């Protein structure tokens, strides 16, 4: 969610973690030109298949001003 008063773009880094807490893959999701006060639902995808149950954790969020 864009909690600021200005439009912004976001890059979200995620980790895919197995049931034991081991990182198995990583991926990115982006939201471009997100209006102030709005939220966006995006899909992050890692490379390759990982067997078993995975949890997705946000590892880093980068906010960029929209041009």
Structural account:
With 67 residues, the protein is mostly beta strands. It contains no helices and 4 strands. The chain has a 4-stranded antiparallel beta sheet, with no helix packed on it. A hairpin with a 4-residue loop joins strand 1 (8-18) and strand 2 (23-34). The chain is elongated, with a radius of gyration of 14 Å. The two termini are 18 Å apart. The model has no long low-confidence stretch (mean pLDDT 90).
Strand composition percent: over 45%
SSE order in H/E notation?
EEEE
Low-confidence stretches: none
Q: Mind describing the biggest β-sheet?
A: 4 strands, antiparallel
Helix content: under 10%
Apparent shape = elongated
How would you summarize the topology of this molecule?
Elements: E1 8-18, E2 23-34, E3 45-46, E4 54-65
Short description:
This protein is an all-beta fold. The protein contains no helices and 4 strands.
Throw out a few tags for this protein.
4 strands, 67 residues, mainly beta, four-stranded antiparallel β-sheet
